[in-house]
Amino acid sequence: MPVASKLVASKPSWANSIDIVLVSPRNPLNIGAVARSMANFGFCNLTVVAPYEPHWHEAQSAVGAEDLLESAKVRSTLAEALPSATLVFGTGTLEPRRPEQPVVELPALAPIVRDEFARGGRIALVFGPEKHGLTRDDLSFCHRLLTIPTNPRQPSMNLGQAVAVCLYELASRLPQLESSPESGPAPAPSNTAATSSNLDLLTGLIEESMIAAGYSPRAMQTANRHDLRLLLRRLAPNAKDARRILGLFRRILWRLNRPRRD
Amino acid sequence: MPVASKLVASKPSWANSIDIVLVSPRNPLNIGAVARSMANFGFCNLTVVAPYEPHWHEAQSAVGAEDLLESAKVRSTLAEALPSATLVFGTGTLEPRRPEQPVVELPALAPIVRDEFARGGRIALVFGPEKHGLTRDDLSFCHRLLTIPTNPRQPSMNLGQAVAVCLYELASRLPQLESSPESGPAPAPSNTAATSSNLDLLTGLIEESMIAAGYSPRAMQTANRHDLRLLLRRLAPNAKDARRILGLFRRILWRLNRPRRD
Q: What are the residues of chain B with a beta carbon less than 8 Å away from any beta carbon of chain A?
């Protein structure tokens, strides 16, 4: 069946395991350009976080708009946009901020993604708004900072072009890696990384426990949540680890809220 | 001197040996996006062929327009835009046309460019208008057809994104190749490829000779010029070869136009 084989060829095996996430994009032309390059390189999962409604509507209803703008998910927070991702890359330039997580340069991305897939994981690439990029808070949901090597005199890229370059890199290098004999067998499922939503659940529970234990004054709450998110992503517990830690903190919290009477 | 070293770092050694050529771009936003990505990846030579004047003016005078739009060369034909290039890549999709020259996929471009530089050559990347891309006639000035591997269901890329992806590929892979020990010493200068304008001179002279010899009916002229251009680019004579062939045809033409009386 030539039609079926064409469809298979046009949707690579990894296309469903990578989410493209745009945080508060402003320019409808940029949104359209992102969708266009996703279609060019065979990506199909787009999530938009807190879009500016009129511009989002304009992008969706533009002449020639891609089908995947129609099927894009809209979420109000970045946490809700990353329910099942196990490895989240936040994109941006290094300057002026000091990175709080490991930095990956785009030409080194494909082998990392390949290894995460081998562990049964799921990837998200997060792109910030045109003007200022991802905030420090957005980045606290990201395991890695992904940078595109650019000229120090003009480091900041147009959103549609940055997305195109990232997707090109993955679409052109992942198939080469998949067919190379180096890639070993997939490890046991227990090795699967915890999802972003599991980590968020854990963050919430640990934070509640900190408060219940009187460890953190309420005024410190936001800063602690930020550091906690980053810490958990740095530790990168697998799914089983995360379940255990969750169980432990559920017990701790229960005990803290119901002190023994003896 | 940290300032000087920063300037050097931001202008890679090959940046001056690659020309970016846009043929009749229409959309001022696309022109701006091309300039932006050239600045992002350290490229500085932009030539625009037969631009639509009001849109070109609009792109040049846009707020935040790149300096290199100011210094861009404007030429009325593609031939005039390629005076000193020794290896010209025309970009485009393979379908529906049957390629008349060798096809290079973008992930394989950097080693070819590196080898051409080692011969003392100069590269041009030519991008066609947004709507229909490069014409068959445009492509007859190109040694190779450069394609970006895309999804067969949506193969055609936005101009600004296509340029960004090509420049990213060169900017990220050329430095790796330059520092690798594989690259041998530069060959003798006699090995330098003939420039595009030398080949055009030769094409004209051979064509004149064909006419003078009664080989080609005048009606066939355009088709012959097209095939001749492609033939010379396929043969890829070096600069010395080209001078010799030019000399031969000058003599032939002189003889044809002044038949011996004996």
A: 6, 9-10, 29, 33, 36-37, 39-42, 66, 106-107, 148-158, 160-161, 164-165, 168-169, 171-173, 176
